[in-house]
Amino acid sequence: CNDWLDVNEDPNNPTNVAPEFVLPAAQASIVASVGSDMAIIGGLWSQHWTQSNASSQYRNIDSYDLNPSDYNNMWTEFYAGGLNDLEDVKIKATASGNNNMVLQAIAVQSFGYQMLADFFDKIPLTEALQVETIKAPKYDDGPAVYAELLKRLDAALALDFNNGKSTAVASDLIFGGMSADNQIDHWKRFVNTLKLKLYLRQTASSNSAQAIAAIKAMLDANTPFLEDHAALTKFVDEPNRSNPLYETNVRQLNTGTNLRLSRTLMTYLQANNDDARLAAYFTPGPTGQSGLEQGDFNNTTIAPGTPSVARMTATDPFYFFSIDEVYFLLSEAYLRIGNDAKAKEFYEKAVPAAYAKFNVAFDAKKIAKGGVYEYPSTGTMEAKLKVIMYQKWVAMFRQGYESYLDQARTGYPEKSPVRSTATSYVPGQWTVSEESVIGNELPKRLPYTSASRDGNINAPAAVPVTAKVWWMK
Amino acid sequence: QDKQVSGVVTADDGSVLPGVNVTLKGTTRGITSDIDGKYTITAPSSGTLVFSFVGYLSQSIVVGSKSTINVTLVADAQQLGEVVVTALGISRERKSLGYSTATIANTSITEARNTSPLDALNARVPGLSVNTASGAPGASTVLNIRGFNSVTGNNQPLFVIDGVPMNNRGNTSSTNAQNGNDDFNRSMDFGNQMNDINPNEIESITVLKGISASALYGSRAANGAILITTKRGKSGKTQVDISSSFARSQVLRVPHLQNTYGQGWSGLFDRIENGSWGPKLDGKTRLWGNVVDNSQMLKPFSAQEDNLKDFFDKGYEWNNSIAVSGGTETANYRVAYSNATADGVVPTNADSYKRNTLSLNGGLKLDKFSVNSNINYVHKNQKAVATGQGDDAGGGKVVWQEIIQIPRDHSIVDSKALLDPNSPYYKFMTLDNYFTPYAQNPYWTLYNQGNNYDEDRIFGNIEFGYQLLKNLDVRYRVGGDYSDAFQKDWGNVGKISDSAPNSSANDVFGGVSQLARQNRQFNSDLIFNFKHNFGSRFDVQAFFGHNLNERTAQTNFAKVTNLDLPGFYSLSNSSVTPTTFATTSKRRLVGIYGQATFGFDNWLYLTVGARNDWTSTLPKGKNSYFYPSASISAVLSDVFKLPAEIPFVKVRFAAASAGNDADPYQVYSVYVPGSVRAGGFGNINFPFGGLNAYEVSNNLGNQNLKPEISTEYEGGLELGFFGRRVGLDLSYYNKLTKNQIISLALEPATGATTQTVNLGSVRNKGVELALNLIPVRTEKLEWGVTVNYNKIWNEVESLGLEGGSGNILLNSSYNVKLRAVVGKPLGAIYSPDVQRDPSGNIIVNPTNGLPLVSSEETYRGSINPNYTLGVSTYLDYKGFKFSANGDYRNGGVFYSYTARLNYFNGNAYMSQYNDREPFVVPGSVVKVGEDSYAPNTMPVSRADVFTYYGGSTSANEYNHVLPKTFFKLRNVSLTYSVPKKALAKLPVRGASVGVFGRNLVLWTPKANHVVDPEANTFGTSLKNLYGEFAAGPSTATYGVQLNLSF
């Protein structure tokens, strides 16, 4: 009788899976979450694009009117879709001794954790992903999250990769197909670049001095950083296998034209005769390139078809780090440690790389003496930082979360005191959304999700979207 | 001095009655009448013979000097003495039952010729709620007995045919699809399996409401049971019954819309808008639509009041059946065939239903051995119009969504020119040139999509019986339910040319999906029956049994999108990677059970029973559970001398519990195929980049899972007055379902999102009242009225979510949430409210006058009605029988996406406030300080009137929660039976003709003039019962019927 009843093992799903079969789905989860929800809000809050006045999908984001439930799905996909799978890979790869795979798991998991921490400030980290024993993980404070992530990254770099078990991982979607040594080298560079980003993020915080010291130590030690994009490029133009931003915003949405050119970005590019980049970013409407004021989605005087539509395709790569971003990080890093020559050198590598990323021909005159994007060698550090940040902002199209976070840290581009239609408006300065529900302020974070608060007694109390994340200026 | 007394027992209709108990009062002496109604018994002259037979009033006759006593028994109109089928196919006298049951005879099931038998149960039984998803042929019917008990589990009763549990699989997309979003995008309702049986072959349906009645069926009957008894051949001449009906159906309810404003947005005319936010309709001729080949169409700017209704056709339904039956004393048979064909109100056969059934019924009785069998075959073919908001990436848009997005001044039927390339208007109606890029020509949608559902099903049983001893018999019954269903859904590719006026509209990529489903159920019962009289006053009826049950299911699904060749609907017609999945599931259960009824003096009965189950779905070693039941019934009128006006009084009390196991595969954690969510609408599915991948399942296994336990107490009173022309049946019950098997949402940061756990409890208390009246009963005329009243107090008592939100989200759309909340009824609807100051005034945004949305949700009501009232009446006069029934449901709310869309596009009747001129929100205030407010003077601008009603960030979402109150006239029928005398010389034994109507009247309160509150597009589980998402209209049906017997 008991044998007859023993039929409760799921025949449809395996109970044990080797980590190399979990790794690609884990990587894809982080890619999909950062590359969709965060790319959309990043581009809106970076004022690359704004919500169309002919549709309504992202009005809540563009008016800073966020509900605790708005990012439930993203929160869920990060933790229960990606970070948990990476934890599974980490545990199993550690057990089998493949430190190459352990390094990969920690690298992508830390990348994901940082993205979450930057949008939410406090997040569950030390008690997260232990569902068998901890059902209500505590939220770690922002500085503690950063410290813990850096500790984990250092530990990963210190692993013994010559243990004879750290073989190549062919199922790695980012650097798969290389020799083990080459793959490990790439992932080490990835981790170093991520560490650099983590340190730079802290430059406006109370932890600034230690962070800059750490940056100096990395640079002085000739730490190897990424030398090309760290990207997922395997997207194809078919449903469920495309770039996540395109898939959610265009293919699967009944209106594919929600994201329109923001006047903020348009004025800046046009003021700098950068029409080629504008054309690479946006499909013009019937009247040519036309921008909508940020958040002006209730505008009924501009015909719905007029504002330019953000370009995106099914096969756009997803960049963990694009090479221009790496150069911008290095440029800022050298600037921060006082090596102006190196800062200029990397700035002048970053800007052409940003054009190349979108296949836009680059005219070297732009960064040459007298050019519109010239590096201000004689300027103050603040002037140099401003130039780097403006260029990084323009370069981070479809990676807008980075420029949004940079702005909250450095204040560049500056917040405009007037609307973008005012005569005194300085092109490129960020304007507060026309439909802002938080008054004359720019948003600083996402509200803690109801997905977490509903089931976790240790989730923090609600915090307004105007409350700064710990490292913000 | 004893002598021989003999005679014949006949019924009041003249037929002889075999099997009548003839007993000598005060002794153990007794005999039953034979096949010809004859009996012989020895009795003293001073003795009294008691003639009793189920369904008839007993008679007592003093023997006296007579040696021949012929008796005519009168049928008991109240049927208080009838035999009812109880659990496991065991018959019991109704008076011995300590719990409430209700039996619906074939005549009530077939009087209005419902193609779907479950629909005929509407308003018949207090405590049984019946909801039909839509007016489409073959639409799902959801039954619920005594309220919702289970938060995330099953709430449907167990369906049993002739003692064997049946499958009642729902075939809506929410159960078909891998992706839950299909509920909102494109979902189709292909009905539920219990509606696919032939109503004419149902002898009766018994509803076992309480657990004490159903517990012997085990776990699955914790929500009550619906027992269907099929017709069998009777001894006598071969009889042929033919029944035929034809009916038309038409739209019952379309939204009542405004007819004052025409096409446009923000108050201005706009020839490409899909809404009616334009200027006032002035009747003047205007150009409309796109300019095509330098020409444009003209039409008056005036309301097309019936444009929605005009879109629909009249539907029809044909029901034909023939049955041949007969038998002898030792053998009987019945063979029946039926055919049902229906086409609904949507033009074309996009909503249609065809069903052929064949049933074979036979029995054989040889001395101590008997065998009975009933085998049924059903073939069903159905097509259903999709609901939801459409899926451009796949099958395409949805007709209903498209037709409610048409301005009030447009005629919808004019778009039909699309079907005629020779029409001068054709070119204006194509995808490229249709008047708006925001909606699709509904005729394109209709003619470029389709689906097909085919199912073959065999179910039935065979039962062997053997009389082991005089008092002991054994039965072995095996039954099965085997079905194979194949479903295909397709939508054409609809590319819009780059240079076309509608170039900004989405292309429709087209798609084909195929789903094959197989369900198998095997069930066997071995039952020992014992019956003995101890002396003249005590009797015992007992049984002991063993049950085996196995259910298996297999599903194979494949879908492609991005069709290459237009109009070719095959999985081969695409270059993209198909989405596929295949699942199998198996669950097994072993049970033993027993029950004994102790009778005392034919008026007091005590029943005790128990069952123990072992299930495959609970953790090994912890998969056994036991549950007892007990009930008492006392026919007080047999004991106490009561006034003649009150000839019958019975009281009853019952207490019982039942356990419920979990779904399969909830015990162990697994890995699942890699599918990653990409934003609100996208996914990345593996294989991807040439790699396969798995993910850690988000559902954490639970090796401590326990059964869900329901406990119910029930008391009842049955009264008969005035020669039993007034009958009252009152029940009160109190049921607690605890250790709920809940899919608990976990904090995702734990690494999992759900775990099936035992948490929380739900209580249902209720009062059920059935009042039967026969105000007039003469030889020629009888008028009867039945009133059912049902009220349920339903409450979630605990969810065990300490420290969390204290609630479970069951479903949501556009911020309207269905939740289980402690202290609220199970199925509570919440939505955002406007912000309010302490005095309740609406706080508005000082810059635009629009109400601010509160971050707190407000409770809008329960999906359960406050109370329901069912009324039936009949009038018999000289062969004419008129009958009608209707139901009124008071209270409750539901979500309506149709309402939402009407507000969004300015068609809503309620969007006409202040002539759509700027207005200050009545009673509104602005916040001027931390806790101070000032009257608001900022009007909502003309352009923001839309935002006020239809904007997505406004607080208007409570407008989409509508009251569920309604009255429906369910059935009306008038039948004339030709008198037997008139047929005497014809070969015809019986003939009747009639007319009938169904759902002819629907009344809803003013606050809902949008949709039929019964509409439901999400399937048959609790989480899906909260409303509609672009559901089609409900329908009214009327027709004629003919019945002949030879």
Q: What's the topology here?
A:
The complex is a heterodimer of chains A (about 475) and B (about 1050).
Chain A: H1 23-45, E1 49-51, H2 59-62, H3 72-96, H4 99-120, H5 142-157, H6 180-201, H7 208-220, E2 230-232, H8 244-251, E3 259-261, H9 263-271, H10 275-281, E4 282-283, E5 309-310, E6 318-321, H11 323-336, H12 340-357, H13 381-395, H14 400-410, H15 450-453
Antiparallel strand pairs in A: 1-3, 2-6, 4-5
Chain B: E1 2-11, E2 21-24, E3 30-32, E4 38-44, E5 48-52, E6 59-62, E7 71-73, E8 83-86, E9 90-93, E10 101-105, H1 106-110, E11 128-132, E12 141-145, E13 158-161, E14 164-165, E15 170-172, H2 173-176, E16 189-192, E17 202-208, H3 211-214, E18 225-230, E19 236-251, E20 285-292, E21 295-300, H4 307-311, E22 315-327, E23 331-343, E24 352-366, E25 369-383, H5 399-403, H6 426-429, H7 442-447, E26 449-467, E27 472-491, E28 511-534, E29 538-561, E30 579-600, E31 604-615, E32 624-635, E33 648-660, E34 671-673, E35 675-678, E36 682-685, E37 694-696, E38 699-700, E39 708-721, E40 726-738, E41 741-745, E42 754-758, E43 761-777, E44 781-798, E45 807-813, E46 816-821, E47 828-834, E48 842-843, E49 853-862, E50 867-877, E51 880-890, E52 893-896, H8 897-904, E53 924-927, E54 933-935, H9 944-950, E55 961-963, E56 966-977, H10 980-983, E57 990-1003, E58 1027-1028, E59 1035-1045
Parallel strand pairs in B: 1-7, 13-18, 38-42, 48-53, 52-58
Antiparallel strand pairs in B: 1-4, 2-3, 2-5, 5-6, 8-9, 10-17, 11-12, 13-14, 15-16, 17-18, 19-22, 19-59, 20-21, 22-23, 23-24, 24-25, 25-26, 26-27, 27-28, 28-29, 29-30, 30-31, 31-32, 32-33, 33-39, 34-37, 35-36, 39-40, 40-43, 41-42, 43-44, 44-50, 45-46, 46-47, 47-49, 50-51, 51-56, 52-55, 53-54, 56-57, ...
Helix pairs in contact in B: 8-9
